[in-house]
Design goal:
By secondary structure, the protein is mainly alpha-helical. About 50% of the residues lie in helices and about 10% in strands. Helix 3 (about 35-50) runs antiparallel to helix 5.
Length: about 350
């Protein structure tokens, strides 16, 4: 039967890889970037045109028809580098089913023979007779010998092809069985295994993430629950907090949640003459309208929760709260009164 396109594609790729591994490629094709491939196309075209080899059908299929009065070197130079990405992907075996145009261009670049596919299909057959290439009248003897050597290599490669036969298909000589290369089958299986392995890893990562989210969510829920259980609603009543039901109408009062223990300990110091040096660092104060107000606990200012109480410092105590000694002042006043009476 005729040579299948998939077999032809793999033989071209195999030829490229063998030449690359044996350093029989140009430096540009050894490192096939899109820009390097375009430059190599220009170099190969200029070399072949000197020998009278054009193969315009292959070039026209990929680059299009040159403008009037121009040759293919003009078109190749102006061909955008991104348009060579499919060829680079083919070389790196990243395309499962390449287009015929790309395969033919690679065969032209590496001087693969026999080419194109139509010529290779007419050259190869299924009989046991020796396979020989069709000779063109304008080909020299050395080119024919090269083609014959490649034909033998193709025949040798086809001998390793494995044929997959469905159970309900009989081999009676009338039905033709499609052939697939063992190498392609192995690569597809390897890709499938890698894909399954990546899927399993993603599932494991997702499961771990879900468990962590559940744990943190549970901890947050417990924290919120304990917070709600240990919290009551209060409002400020001049010098202490008064507890009220949380659903009670505020009646203009600022109702806020608070820990019950804090309600008992937070008080306003109403008698400032009880504040002594011992109170420094133990009480908390705020200056409101030039008045110093002291409290027994740290926290927000009850009359304005946007402000925070500060710890009572010695400087504030000395400046605003220490009792003034008035004994000397009283003595001077008494002596002045006596002098006035004597007069």
């Amino acid at each position: 039967m005729p040579l299948l396109f998939i077999d032809y594609s793999n033989l071209v790729l195999k030829e490229y890889e063998e030449r690359r591994n044996s350093n029989r490629l140009s430096g540009l094709l050894m490192h096939p970037t899109t820009a390097n491939i375009r430059q190599e196309c220009l170099n190969v075209y200029n070399e072949r045109i000197k020998k009278g080899e054009t193969e315009e059908d292959i070039l026209r299929a990929f680059f299009g028809v040159p403008p009037a009065g121009r040759s293919f070197d003009y078109v190749i130079e102006r061909h955008h580098a991104d348009k060579f990405r499919p060829l680079r992907s083919l070389i790196k075996r990243k395309i499962r089913i390449p287009s015929l145009v790309i395969v033919e261009l690679l065969a032209w670049l590496i001087d693969f023979n026999p080419r194109p596919l139509a010529f290779a299909q007419t050259t190869l057959g299924t009989t046991n007779e020796p396979l020989t290439p069709v000779k063109d009248s304008n080909e020299n003897q050395s080119e024919t010998e090269t083609a014959e050597a490649n034909v033998l290599e193709i025949k040798k490669g086809l001998s390793s092809v494995s044929i997959l036969v469905p159970k309900n298909l009989s081999l009676d000589g009338k039905n033709k069985i499609p052939a697939t290369l063992t190498e392609d089958t192995n690569k597809l299986s390897e890709k499938k295994r890698k894909r399954n392995s990546q899927t399993r890893k993603l599932k494991i990562v997702a499961a771990i993430g879900l468990i962590i989210a559940i744990l943190f969510g549970g901890m947050y829920f417990i924290w919120q629950y304990e917070k709600s259980v240990n919290t009551v609603c209060v409002y400020w009543a001049n010098d202490h907090y008064e507890q009220v039901p949380c659903n009670e109408d505020s009646k203009g009062r600022h109702i806020q949640p608070m820990n019950p223990e804090r309600i008992k300990s937070f008080r306003k110091v109403t008698q400032q003459d009880t504040i002594t040096e011992w109170s420094v660092g133990k009480l908390y104060y705020i200056k409101d309208s030039n008045i110093i107000k002291c409290y027994t606990e740290a926290g927000n200012y009850p009359e304005d929760v946007n402000r925070t109480l500060k710890v009572l410092s010695r400087r504030v105590f000395e400046k605003y709260l220490r009792k003034k000694d008035t004994s000397d002042k009283d003595s001077i006043t008494e002596q002045s009164n006596k002098l006035s009476n004597n007069k």
